[in-house]
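Final paragraph of the annual report: two paired records, presented back to back.
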Amino acid sequence: MIRKILKGIALFLVLDIVIVLVYGFVQYPKAKGVQHFTAERVINAPKDQVWEIISDVGNYHKVTASNINHVEIVEGEGLGMKRVCSAPDGSSWEETCTLWNPGKEFQFVVNTQKEDYPFPLKSLSGSWKLEEIDATQTRLFLDFAYEFKSPFLSGYFLSMGTEQAEKDTEFLLNNWQRLAEK
Protein backbone atom coordinates (compact mmCIF):
# COMPACT_ATOMS: atom_id res chain seq x y z
CA MET A 1 0.00 0.00 0.00
CA ILE A 2 2.77 2.45 0.95
CA ARG A 3 4.60 1.47 -2.23
CA LYS A 4 1.57 2.40 -4.35
CA ILE A 5 1.31 5.77 -2.62
CA LEU A 6 5.02 6.48 -3.18
CA LYS A 7 4.74 5.47 -6.84
CA GLY A 8 1.71 7.75 -7.22
CA ILE A 9 3.59 10.67 -5.68
CA ALA A 10 6.64 10.01 -7.88
CA LEU A 11 4.44 9.82 -11.00
CA PHE A 12 2.71 13.06 -10.00
CA LEU A 13 6.07 14.84 -9.56
CA VAL A 14 7.39 13.54 -12.90
CA LEU A 15 4.21 14.71 -14.66
CA ASP A 16 4.53 18.15 -13.05
CA ILE A 17 8.12 18.46 -14.25
CA VAL A 18 7.14 17.36 -17.77
CA ILE A 19 4.27 19.88 -17.86
CA VAL A 20 6.58 22.70 -16.70
CA LEU A 21 9.19 21.78 -19.34
CA VAL A 22 6.61 21.48 -22.15
CA TYR A 23 5.02 24.79 -21.15
CA GLY A 24 8.47 26.38 -21.01
CA PHE A 25 9.24 25.05 -24.51
CA VAL A 26 5.95 26.47 -25.87
CA GLN A 27 6.59 29.83 -24.19
CA TYR A 28 10.30 29.93 -25.18
CA PRO A 29 9.85 32.34 -28.12
CA LYS A 30 8.03 34.80 -25.83
CA ALA A 31 10.70 34.63 -23.12
CA LYS A 32 13.75 34.90 -25.38
CA GLY A 33 15.59 38.23 -25.51
CA VAL A 34 14.61 41.55 -23.97
CA GLN A 35 10.92 41.88 -23.13
CA HIS A 36 8.95 45.02 -22.27
CA PHE A 37 6.12 45.51 -19.86
CA THR A 38 4.49 48.90 -20.43
CA ALA A 39 1.66 50.87 -18.90
CA GLU A 40 0.31 54.37 -19.12
CA ARG A 41 -2.16 56.52 -17.26
CA VAL A 42 -3.73 59.93 -17.82
CA ILE A 43 -3.74 61.86 -14.57
CA ASN A 44 -5.91 64.93 -14.07
CA ALA A 45 -3.16 67.09 -12.59
CA PRO A 46 -0.47 69.44 -13.92
CA LYS A 47 2.79 67.86 -15.05
CA ASP A 48 4.87 69.50 -12.28
CA GLN A 49 2.53 68.12 -9.63
CA VAL A 50 2.73 64.59 -11.07
CA TRP A 51 6.52 64.85 -11.31
CA GLU A 52 6.77 65.82 -7.65
CA ILE A 53 4.90 62.65 -6.70
CA ILE A 54 6.55 60.09 -9.00
CA SER A 55 10.08 61.44 -8.49
CA ASP A 56 9.89 60.84 -4.73
CA VAL A 57 11.89 57.65 -5.35
CA GLY A 58 13.01 57.26 -1.74
CA ASN A 59 9.40 56.75 -0.69
CA TYR A 60 8.46 54.38 -3.50
CA HIS A 61 7.58 51.68 -0.95
CA LYS A 62 4.75 53.86 0.40
CA VAL A 63 2.83 53.81 -2.89
CA THR A 64 3.81 50.58 -4.58
CA ALA A 65 2.35 47.11 -4.11
CA SER A 66 3.26 44.80 -1.25
CA ASN A 67 6.30 43.32 -3.05
CA ILE A 68 8.43 46.29 -1.88
CA ASN A 69 8.24 47.19 1.79
CA HIS A 70 11.31 49.44 2.14
CA VAL A 71 13.44 51.70 -0.04
CA GLU A 72 16.66 53.32 1.05
CA ILE A 73 18.66 55.81 -0.99
CA VAL A 74 22.25 54.81 -0.30
CA GLU A 75 24.07 57.27 -2.55
CA GLY A 76 23.48 60.54 -4.37
CA GLU A 77 20.39 62.06 -5.88
CA GLY A 78 19.14 62.31 -9.44
CA LEU A 79 21.47 60.86 -12.06
CA GLY A 80 23.75 58.23 -10.49
CA MET A 81 21.60 57.81 -7.39
CA LYS A 82 21.65 54.34 -5.88
CA ARG A 83 18.79 52.89 -3.90
CA VAL A 84 18.16 49.53 -2.27
CA CYS A 85 14.66 48.07 -2.45
CA SER A 86 13.65 45.38 0.02
CA ALA A 87 10.86 42.81 -0.10
CA PRO A 88 8.89 41.51 2.89
CA ASP A 89 10.78 38.20 2.75
CA GLY A 90 14.07 40.02 3.45
CA SER A 91 15.43 39.86 -0.08
CA SER A 92 16.72 43.08 -1.59
CA TRP A 93 18.27 44.50 -4.73
CA GLU A 94 20.21 47.59 -5.75
CA GLU A 95 19.08 50.05 -8.41
CA THR A 96 21.02 52.87 -10.07
CA CYS A 97 19.45 55.92 -11.69
CA THR A 98 20.79 56.09 -15.27
CA LEU A 99 18.56 58.90 -16.55
CA TRP A 100 17.25 61.89 -14.63
CA ASN A 101 15.63 64.62 -16.66
CA PRO A 102 13.77 66.73 -14.04
CA GLY A 103 10.11 67.28 -14.78
CA LYS A 104 10.19 64.83 -17.68
CA GLU A 105 11.63 61.35 -17.09
CA PHE A 106 13.89 59.07 -15.10
CA GLN A 107 15.20 55.53 -15.35
CA PHE A 108 16.59 52.95 -12.91
CA VAL A 109 18.66 49.90 -13.81
CA VAL A 110 18.63 46.98 -11.38
CA ASN A 111 21.92 45.27 -10.53
CA THR A 112 20.86 41.72 -11.44
CA GLN A 113 24.47 40.50 -11.36
CA LYS A 114 24.76 40.62 -7.58
CA GLU A 115 25.09 37.16 -6.12
CA ASP A 116 22.03 37.54 -3.88
CA TYR A 117 19.72 39.03 -6.55
CA PRO A 118 16.43 37.21 -5.86
CA PHE A 119 14.79 36.98 -9.31
CA PRO A 120 15.49 34.87 -12.44
CA LEU A 121 16.35 37.92 -14.54
CA LYS A 122 19.50 38.63 -16.52
CA SER A 123 18.61 42.34 -16.79
CA LEU A 124 15.89 44.71 -15.57
CA SER A 125 15.32 48.43 -15.94
CA GLY A 126 12.38 50.76 -15.48
CA SER A 127 11.61 54.08 -17.14
CA TRP A 128 9.05 56.65 -16.06
CA LYS A 129 8.15 59.45 -18.48
CA LEU A 130 5.68 62.33 -18.34
CA GLU A 131 3.92 64.06 -21.22
CA GLU A 132 1.83 67.17 -20.73
CA ILE A 133 -1.55 66.86 -22.42
CA ASP A 134 -2.69 70.31 -21.30
CA ALA A 135 -2.34 72.49 -18.19
CA THR A 136 -4.50 70.12 -16.13
CA GLN A 137 -3.71 66.67 -17.57
CA THR A 138 -0.54 64.60 -17.71
CA ARG A 139 0.16 61.25 -19.35
CA LEU A 140 2.50 58.96 -17.42
CA PHE A 141 4.33 56.19 -19.31
CA LEU A 142 6.04 53.26 -17.62
CA ASP A 143 8.35 50.89 -19.49
CA PHE A 144 10.04 47.98 -17.75
CA ALA A 145 12.60 46.14 -19.89
CA TYR A 146 13.72 42.72 -18.71
CA GLU A 147 15.48 39.60 -19.90
CA PHE A 148 15.32 36.17 -18.31
CA LYS A 149 18.51 34.34 -17.32
CA SER A 150 17.18 31.12 -18.82
CA PRO A 151 14.51 31.76 -21.48
CA PHE A 152 13.56 28.08 -21.73
CA LEU A 153 12.58 27.60 -18.10
CA SER A 154 11.47 31.19 -17.72
CA GLY A 155 8.76 30.80 -20.33
CA TYR A 156 6.78 29.21 -17.55
CA PHE A 157 7.20 32.29 -15.36
CA LEU A 158 6.30 34.77 -18.11
CA SER A 159 2.53 34.34 -17.79
CA MET A 160 2.55 34.38 -13.99
CA GLY A 161 4.93 37.33 -13.85
CA THR A 162 2.96 39.39 -16.35
CA GLU A 163 -0.24 38.91 -14.39
CA GLN A 164 1.44 39.98 -11.14
CA ALA A 165 3.16 42.95 -12.86
CA GLU A 166 -0.22 44.13 -14.17
CA LYS A 167 -1.75 44.01 -10.68
CA ASP A 168 1.23 45.73 -9.05
CA THR A 169 1.42 48.43 -11.72
CA GLU A 170 -2.31 49.12 -11.49
CA PHE A 171 -1.96 49.47 -7.72
CA LEU A 172 0.97 51.89 -8.12
CA LEU A 173 -0.74 53.98 -10.80
CA ASN A 174 -3.93 54.18 -8.74
CA ASN A 175 -1.95 55.46 -5.74
CA TRP A 176 -0.04 58.03 -7.78
CA GLN A 177 -3.23 59.19 -9.44
CA ARG A 178 -5.01 59.51 -6.10
CA LEU A 179 -2.12 61.57 -4.66
CA ALA A 180 -1.85 63.83 -7.72
CA GLU A 181 -5.57 64.47 -8.07
CA LYS A 182 -6.15 65.44 -4.41
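The closing record of the year follows.
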Amino acid sequence: MATVELRFSALPEHVRTARLVAAAVARRAGVDESVLDEVRLAVGEACSRAVGLHQHGDAGGAVRVALIDQEKRFVIEVGDGAGSLSELGASGDGDAGESPDVSDDALGLAVITGLVEEVEVGRDEDGGLIRMSWPVNPA
Protein backbone atom coordinates (compact mmCIF):
# COMPACT_ATOMS: atom_id res chain seq x y z
CA MET A 1 0.00 0.00 0.00
CA ALA A 2 1.56 3.27 -1.15
CA THR A 3 0.65 6.55 0.52
CA VAL A 4 1.30 10.14 -0.50
CA GLU A 5 0.74 12.75 2.21
CA LEU A 6 0.25 16.48 1.75
CA ARG A 7 0.09 19.15 4.41
CA PHE A 8 -0.65 22.72 3.50
CA SER A 9 -1.48 26.01 5.16
CA ALA A 10 -5.19 26.68 5.31
CA LEU A 11 -5.19 29.08 2.38
CA PRO A 12 -7.55 28.83 -0.62
CA GLU A 13 -4.71 29.08 -3.13
CA HIS A 14 -3.34 25.70 -1.98
CA VAL A 15 -6.56 23.82 -2.80
CA ARG A 16 -5.75 23.79 -6.52
CA THR A 17 -2.41 22.12 -5.84
CA ALA A 18 -4.11 19.43 -3.74
CA ARG A 19 -6.58 18.79 -6.58
CA LEU A 20 -3.81 18.43 -9.15
CA VAL A 21 -1.75 16.08 -6.97
CA ALA A 22 -4.81 13.97 -6.14
CA ALA A 23 -5.70 13.55 -9.82
CA ALA A 24 -2.13 12.62 -10.74
CA VAL A 25 -1.82 10.05 -7.96
CA ALA A 26 -5.30 8.65 -8.72
CA ARG A 27 -4.37 8.20 -12.38
CA ARG A 28 -1.16 6.41 -11.39
CA ALA A 29 -3.07 4.20 -8.93
CA GLY A 30 -5.38 2.99 -11.71
CA VAL A 31 -8.53 5.02 -11.16
CA ASP A 32 -10.53 5.09 -14.39
CA GLU A 33 -9.98 8.20 -16.53
CA SER A 34 -13.73 8.87 -16.60
CA VAL A 35 -13.72 9.31 -12.81
CA LEU A 36 -10.72 11.65 -12.49
CA ASP A 37 -12.86 14.80 -12.75
CA GLU A 38 -14.96 13.55 -9.85
CA VAL A 39 -11.80 12.91 -7.84
CA ARG A 40 -10.59 16.46 -8.54
CA LEU A 41 -13.93 18.03 -7.65
CA ALA A 42 -14.39 15.97 -4.47
CA VAL A 43 -10.87 16.76 -3.24
CA GLY A 44 -11.42 20.42 -4.05
CA GLU A 45 -14.66 20.48 -2.05
CA ALA A 46 -13.15 18.63 0.91
CA CYS A 47 -10.04 20.83 0.98
CA SER A 48 -12.09 24.03 0.56
CA ARG A 49 -14.27 22.90 3.47
CA ALA A 50 -11.19 22.31 5.62
CA VAL A 51 -9.71 25.70 4.67
CA GLY A 52 -13.02 27.41 5.47
CA LEU A 53 -13.25 25.74 8.87
CA HIS A 54 -9.69 26.79 9.68
CA GLN A 55 -10.31 30.38 8.66
CA HIS A 56 -13.70 30.60 10.36
CA GLY A 57 -12.34 29.36 13.67
CA ASP A 58 -8.84 30.86 13.44
CA ALA A 59 -7.52 27.32 13.88
CA GLY A 60 -3.80 26.74 13.62
CA GLY A 61 -2.18 23.81 11.95
CA ALA A 62 -2.39 22.47 8.45
CA VAL A 63 -4.91 20.80 6.20
CA ARG A 64 -3.88 17.16 5.78
CA VAL A 65 -4.46 15.08 2.65
CA ALA A 66 -3.53 11.39 2.46
CA LEU A 67 -3.69 9.63 -0.90
CA ILE A 68 -3.67 5.87 -0.32
CA ASP A 69 -3.26 3.29 -3.08
CA GLN A 70 -4.79 0.07 -1.78
CA GLU A 71 -5.11 -3.19 -3.69
CA LYS A 72 -8.64 -2.59 -5.01
CA ARG A 73 -9.46 0.96 -3.85
CA PHE A 74 -7.93 4.39 -4.07
CA VAL A 75 -8.58 6.27 -0.82
CA ILE A 76 -8.27 9.97 -0.09
CA GLU A 77 -8.49 11.32 3.44
CA VAL A 78 -8.80 15.06 4.03
CA GLY A 79 -8.35 16.17 7.62
CA ASP A 80 -8.58 19.54 9.26
CA GLY A 81 -7.32 20.78 12.59
CA ALA A 82 -10.43 22.83 13.29
CA GLY A 83 -11.51 20.84 16.34
CA SER A 84 -15.24 20.99 17.12
CA LEU A 85 -15.88 23.40 14.22
CA SER A 86 -15.55 20.35 11.95
CA GLU A 87 -18.96 19.17 13.12
CA LEU A 88 -20.85 22.22 11.78
CA GLY A 89 -22.52 20.63 8.78
CA ALA A 90 -21.60 17.00 9.30
CA SER A 91 -25.16 16.01 10.15
CA GLY A 92 -26.44 17.59 6.94
CA ASP A 93 -29.47 19.07 8.72
CA GLY A 94 -28.56 22.75 8.48
CA ASP A 95 -31.47 25.18 8.28
CA ALA A 96 -31.63 28.04 5.81
CA GLY A 97 -31.84 30.40 8.80
CA GLU A 98 -28.45 29.36 10.15
CA SER A 99 -25.25 31.23 9.43
CA PRO A 100 -23.94 31.03 5.85
CA ASP A 101 -20.90 29.06 7.04
CA VAL A 102 -23.09 26.22 8.29
CA SER A 103 -25.22 26.05 5.13
CA ASP A 104 -22.09 26.26 2.91
CA ASP A 105 -20.54 23.42 4.91
CA ALA A 106 -23.64 21.25 4.50
CA LEU A 107 -23.75 22.07 0.78
CA GLY A 108 -20.08 21.10 0.40
CA LEU A 109 -20.70 17.77 2.13
CA ALA A 110 -23.72 17.16 -0.10
CA VAL A 111 -21.62 17.80 -3.21
CA ILE A 112 -18.94 15.38 -1.98
CA THR A 113 -21.56 12.73 -1.23
CA GLY A 114 -22.96 13.14 -4.74
CA LEU A 115 -19.53 12.78 -6.35
CA VAL A 116 -18.11 9.89 -4.34
CA GLU A 117 -19.54 6.39 -4.17
CA GLU A 118 -17.98 5.63 -0.78
CA VAL A 119 -17.59 8.55 1.61
CA GLU A 120 -17.30 8.75 5.39
CA VAL A 121 -17.41 11.95 7.41
CA GLY A 122 -15.98 11.64 10.88
CA ARG A 123 -13.36 12.87 13.29
CA ASP A 124 -9.82 12.10 14.30
CA GLU A 125 -7.70 13.49 17.13
CA ASP A 126 -7.14 16.80 15.31
CA GLY A 127 -10.61 17.58 14.00
CA GLY A 128 -12.75 16.52 11.06
CA LEU A 129 -11.84 13.80 8.59
CA ILE A 130 -13.44 13.06 5.24
CA ARG A 131 -12.56 9.65 3.81
CA MET A 132 -13.41 9.04 0.15
CA SER A 133 -12.64 6.03 -2.03
CA TRP A 134 -12.89 4.89 -5.63
CA PRO A 135 -12.31 1.50 -7.29
CA VAL A 136 -9.10 0.96 -9.25
CA ASN A 137 -8.74 -0.94 -12.50
CA PRO A 138 -6.74 -4.15 -12.22
CA ALA A 139 -3.26 -3.77 -13.70
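The longest helix spans residues 36-57. This concludes the annual technical report; the extension proposal builds directly on these records.
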